[in-house]
Amino acid sequence: MNLFGRAKKAPKPKISDRIKELKEAQEMLDKQEAHLEKKMEEARKMALQKSRQKNKKAAIFQLKRKKMFEKRLNQLYGQRENVERLINAMETVAFNKANIEKLKKGKEALAQTIEEVDVDKVNELMDDVNEQVAMADEIGEAMAQTLGNDDIEEEDLEKELEELQNEEMEAEMLQAPEVPMSEEKSEKVEQKQPATVEVKGDILAELASAPSAPVSKPEAKQDKELEAVTASLGI
């Protein structure tokens, strides 16, 4: 007890400190496991060596040592498994606790913000915003209107455009060059006259000097019969 009447309360342990302690214990277990595994391997090798030396008792003794180390190692495996499960559970709890604290703070901030905001004022603000947007739309439509009075009909404009196109076509036809009649007739005569072939004198001489084809006997007989017929008719 404290001299002044009440004993000071011990500070609550932090879960992070306990997790740290458990991880340190886990590291110690890992070191002991590695040490026992090494001892087991040494005992196994010694048992084989004594067996080769025909020393049965020494070989059995080494096998007993190996079993002892193996039993102790299995116990450490169980302890380490329990430590790992406890660490996992504590880390999960710490994580959930941190999230719960954050959610709690978020809820408090949200509640405080809602208290500071008046729903009626929000509705009034939204009405004002909608009214201002509508006014902006009206201003935009007014600015888009055509200035001055526009009484011209679209049909009149289309007729005027058609007249302009016709005038342009007539002007192009008048500007086209005219072909003289004499030139047209001469071109037609030239087209009707067949093309003449110029025969040179050398070619005619060669044709005259060329031997005539011999007349076959049947053709000579037909000629004589034709002459006899014509003679009888007095032609």
Commentary on this structure:
This protein is mostly helical and 235 residues long. It is built from 7 helices and no strands. The chain has helices spanning 15-52, 56-116, 119-143, 154-174, 181-192, 201-209, 217-232. The chain is flat, with a radius of gyration of 65 Å. The N and C termini lie far apart (181 Å).
Give the SSE map.
Elements: H1 15-52, H2 56-116, H3 119-143, H4 154-174, H5 181-192, H6 201-209, H7 217-232
Sheet of most strands: none
- For the termini, the CA-CA separation is 181 Å
What's the order of the H and E elements? HHHHHHH
What share of residues are in beta strands?
under 5%
Shape: flat
Residue windows where pLDDT falls under 50 for at least 5 positions: 193-201
Please give the count of helices. 7
What key phrases describe this protein's structure?
77% helix; 235 residues; mainly alpha
Short description:
With 235 residues, this protein is mostly helical. Helix content is 77%, strand content 0%. The chain has helices at residues 15-52, 56-116, 119-143, 154-174, 181-192, 201-209, 217-232.
